[in-house]
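Tokens for chain A. Residues wanted.
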């Protein structure tokens, strides 16, 4: 009986490995396939893919797609993984997974020229809401920094390191676009907040928006 159970477990393990190998091949050869399932992965009612215990699997899937197309990787990362590191339910291990993945994507040779100006499904890789999240993770409030949280400090340093290229990706696009107006909307608010570093960065972005879209003057 023990030998039978051992053989059965071995067979099940083999089948699981085969599934992962097959999935990896599909995602690497047809990375856009990941984009088509993003709505399913992000549905709050779909508990099968929700929770920090699912982060390693989702991160792995995005990593496989990134091998085939870096832009798909960053597109998916900003939509399904970046939101995980925000809020009270933030988990250090999940944050590390999320950061490791984007660090790997950005360290790939020629990542910058590939990602800047890249578009998927007619959308920027990093949408304005995701860009605002990045800014606030990179320039947290002084109240958060004053707390003795070594992990938070380390995470902030990692976000600060990758922020410049992610900012460039987020701000790339056509002058006068609706996205620029959305960026202007949150930047003008952030510029007035009691956070010197955030305010300085936000002012710089506001000036950039003015130089790219005359509609921003009307918003102001």
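Reply:
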């Amino acid at each position: 009986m023990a030998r039978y159970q051992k053989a059965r477990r071995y067979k099940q393990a083999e089948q699981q490995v085969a599934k992962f190998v097959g999935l990896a091949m599909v995602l690497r050869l047809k990375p856009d396939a990941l984009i088509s399932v993003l709505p399913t992965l992000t549905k709050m009612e779909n508990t099968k893919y929700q929770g920090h215990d699912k982060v390693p699997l989702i991160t792995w899937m995005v990593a496989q797609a990134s091998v085939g197309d870096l832009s798909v990787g960053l597109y998916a990362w900003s939509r399904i993984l970046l939101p995980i590191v925000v809020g009270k339910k933030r988990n250090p291990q999940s944050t590390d997974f999320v950061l490791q993945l984007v660090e790997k994507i950005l360290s790939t040779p020629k990542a910058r020229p590939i990602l800047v100006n890249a578009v998927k499904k007619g959308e920027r890789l990093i949408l304005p809401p995701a860009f605002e999240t990045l800014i606030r993770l990179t320039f947290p409030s002084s109240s958060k920094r004053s707390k003795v949280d070594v992990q938070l400090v380390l995470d902030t340093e990692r976000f600060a390191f990758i922020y410049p290229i992610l900012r460039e990706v987020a701000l790339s696009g056509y002058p006068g676009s609706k996205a620029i107006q959305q960026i202007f909307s949150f930047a003008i608010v952030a510029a007035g907040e009691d956070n010197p570093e955030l305010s300085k960065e936000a002012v710089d972005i506001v000036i950039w928006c003015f130089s790219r879209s005359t509609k921003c003057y009307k918003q102001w």
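The mean pLDDT is 86. The beta strands are 119-120, 123-124.
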